[in-house]
Amino acid sequence: MKLIKYSLGMLVTMLVFITSCTDFVDPRIPYSTFDTGAYLRTVARTSDTFNFFDLGNSKFDITVEAVDAENGATVESVEVRVRRRRLIPGVGLEYIPVGTGTTVNDVLVKTLSASDFASTTESKFLRAGIVVTSAETLSALGLTQSQINGGDVFEFRLKMTDKSGRVFNDVNASADIKGGAFYASPFLYNVSVVCPTALAGTYEFTSSEMSSPFGSCPGTITGTVTFTAIAGTTSYGVSDATFGFWDCYGDTFGGNVRLNDACGSLSFSGSDKYGDTYTFNFISVSPAELVFTWVNTSAETGRVVLKSNAGKPWPPGLR
């Protein structure tokens, strides 16, 4: 009995020792057509969006490590391919290059060779950085910045070939490889064109050309207005959508008027305390001043020059 217990104890100890001392290399990597291969574990996503307002400096930037039986040495090349996806309301998805059926048509934008993968102190697997600028992306697709909309998506696909000529990509990889937290190797990265908005704050304004069926307000009015960010949206509550005009009546503004920023396209929504809605009419923008007129459904109107705050110029893409 003691011998059995001793033997079992030794077996458990050996298993623990082996498990704790063995750095993981899984010889069975689940692909659809073979079970031994390689994958590209994503270890860093430095940039996976394009800024609509700063496309010139936007880039797709990730770091991957090649995991295989030789610690990454079986990698021959990695193609970086791309296509643009756009959702057309009422129509569906539109792709450039145009796809046919379930076929994925994309274009080559960059190729990494085995020499691009190098050893690091963080891992025993070879790593490589993949950086594709927006300019490289648009050039490969034959597009210009003027053809890009907020909400567009660039689908970057990795196509890895090993020294045996086998291809690894998002088509033959299993769900475990593409979506599993351990493998972290989607081979497909959706890079969205985003429109950051940061208009919250209190601003100085000068109002002029104010009029309404109830009378005019000669000269100019100066004051401040506050835009309050509404969580989960790109909209802002407006403290005074008349920008001081109601002061001429001895009235105070109230209601729920919002300023909406849709990738730089500004508009009003909601209504004031009397139920009137507002229209925003853009005139011009400079780093120091945003100029526009407003009009509501009671035919009240005014022209506003809104000053930017120190160190926070108006975004050039506002319109």
Automatic annotation (TrEMBL):
Q: Species name for this entry?
A: Aquiflexum gelatinilyticum
Origin superkingdom? Bacteria
Q: Where is the signal peptide?
A: 1-25
Signal among keywords: yes
Name of the protein described by the UniProt record? DUF1735 domain-containing protein
Q: What PROSITE patterns does its record include?
A: PROKAR_LIPOPROTEIN
Q: Which UniProt keywords apply?
A: Signal
